[in-house]
Design brief:
3 domains, alpha/beta, five-stranded mixed beta sheet, Rossmann fold, 247 residues
Length: 247
């Protein structure tokens, strides 16, 4: 039979040490879990590019940036860079918006994984330019997040929408090609000449003489202010008329 004073001392020791051991074990386990989860998040963390634009100098991009930064934080995205076009209309193309042009160049360099914008009209008001930009992002494998439309191509539903945009873009290109072909055929039926206008006979004679005298095609084109590809036309006409052509 155990001595009562000794048993009491042992129980008191266990009562003090056992919970402490369990607490330390729980703390160590929790810390290890957090470190592992953080490392996984860092490995999978997407780099986000925020694009902001306002049309007038009186407007501000502060509200847009605040909301988009919060959305990036909720999605565990790292904001790599913020691009701002201040006081520039969305009707202007890429060349008229310096920050948007830089965004497109950085996208080609894969400097981020997702583009974030407050609204689709912040990216542009021209449907043609907008579809071209979305198609470029899709080809580069870069996702798109639009706050107001609730579009997030990192989700399955968003990816499906992105693919549909690509289909529409291809459909639009095919329609444009058909219209161009139809216009060329109509012009031919009406007897219109396609391509550059023909060179006048007197100018053609001067071009032949210059090339025959040893002047290069490029210098001849510069001298007579014509396109270099047009230099061959006088000689083609001369061959058709059985005229001697200089070698």
């Amino acid at each position: 039979m155990l001595d009562v004073p000794v048993t009491a001392v042992v129980l008191q020791a266990y009562a003090k040490t056992l919970p402490k051991c369990r607490l330390e074990s729980a703390i160590n386990s929790m810390l290890a879990h957090r470190i592992l989860a953080r490392s996984r998040r860092d490995e999978a963390m997407k780099r986000a590019a925020i694009y902001l634009r306002v049309s007038t100098q009186d407007q501000t991009t502060v509200n847009q940036e605040h909301e988009l930064r919060q959305a990036a934080e909720r999605a565990n995205w790292q904001v790599a860079r913020v691009y701002k076009d201040h006081g520039i209309s969305g009707a202007k193309g890429r060349n008229g918006r310096p920050a948007f042009d830089t965004l497109c160049r950085d996208a080609t360099k894969r400097q981020f994984d997702v583009v974030m914008a407050w609204n689709v009209d912040r990216l542009g008001r021209s449907l043609k330019d907008l579809v071209a930009f979305l198609s470029e992002l899709h080809a580069l494998g870069i996702d798109l997040f639009l706050h107001q439309q609730g579009l997030d191509t990192t989700t399955p539903a968003g990816k499906a929408m992105f693919q549909m945009l690509g289909v529409f873009a291809e459909f639009e290109r095919s329609i444009i090609q058909e219209r161009v072909r139809a216009g060329l055929q109509r012009a031919k039926r009406e007897g219109k000449r396609l391509g550059r206008p023909p060179i006048a006979d007197k100018l053609a004679e001067r071009i032949r003489a210059a090339v025959a005298g040893g002047l290069s095609v490029r210098k001849t084109a510069t001298k007579f202010d014509v396109n270099p590809s047009s230099i061959a036309r006088p000689f083609d006409d001369a061959e058709d008329a059985n005229v001697a052509v200089p070698a």
